[in-house]
Amino acid sequence: MVATLPDPCDASAVLHDVTLEGHGARLVPLDDTHAEALAAFVDDRVWAGMSSPLPVGIDGWRAEVDRARATPGRVALAVLDAATGEVRGSTSFYDLDTHVLRVEIGHTYYAPRWWGTSNNPACKLLMLTHAFETWGMQRVAFRADTRNTRSVGAIRRLGAVPEGVLRSHRLAPDGTRGDSAYFSILPDEWPAVRAGLLARLAGTTPDV
């Protein structure tokens, strides 16, 4: 059953209650209690491709968490190990439009020890399932700086459809400009994407 979404002006408080769990990952609302763990592992390598400066120290991370939570149309999530509670990273729904029924998934970063594991496909499966099957979204989009080949590759492995490149679309913290590669998934494409993610999580296709 597709949920009835609140009006956009009332959506923030309700949608920030999202909690998702499966395949070893647990996604919970991002809050100040996650700042110390994020500060411990997020460095320039992990933060590559972001359009804001790397937060510095626990106070910097508390400010980053507060900013993420306060951004209209964004549902910021901490990614935890379901068994241990270890903070693996963070990801978000953003540019959420509850009238047009579209959303983007991004602002994603994980501790390097989780790169190339089941973590990212698990998170994407949980988030896409929620977007399409609970919220009833008609479009889920992804974007990445074209220079961030790791992120672009991860999006392509999802089975998202390439839509093109927006030139000079991004401003990096150092003042340089970059291009954004856009991808999307529509409802009729979701079953194939879901099957691909489940195959990766089952180990029948490689997660490289």
Q: Would you mind describing this structure in some detail?
A:
With 208 residues, this protein is of the alpha+beta class. The protein has a single domain, classed as 3-Layer(aba) Sandwich (Aminopeptidase), CATH 3.40.630.30. The protein is built from seven helices and eight strands; from the N terminus they run αββαααβββαβαββα. Strands 1-2-3-4-5-6-8-7 form an eight-stranded mixed β-sheet, with helices on both faces. It is globular, with a radius of gyration of 16 Å. About 3% of the residues have low confidence.
Question: Fraction of residues in helices?
Answer: 25-40%
Question: Radius of gyration from the CA trace?
Answer: 16 Å
Largest sheet: 8 strands, mixed
Strand order of the largest sheet: 1-2-3-4-5-6-8-7
Question: What's the CATH H-level superfamily name?
Answer: Gcn5-related N-acetyltransferase (GNAT)
Distance between the termini: 34 Å
Strand-pairing-aware structural class: alpha+beta
Gross geometry: globular
Series of secondary-structure elements, N-terminal to C-terminal: HEEHHHEEEHEHEEH
Strand residue percentage: 25-35%
Total domains, how many? Answer: 1
Name the CATH architecture. Answer: 3-Layer(aba) Sandwich
Overall mean pLDDT stands at: 91
Care to count the β-strands?
A: 8
Number of helical segments with 4 or more residues: 7
CATH topology: Aminopeptidase
> Any idea of the CATH class?
Alpha Beta
Low-confidence stretches: 8-13
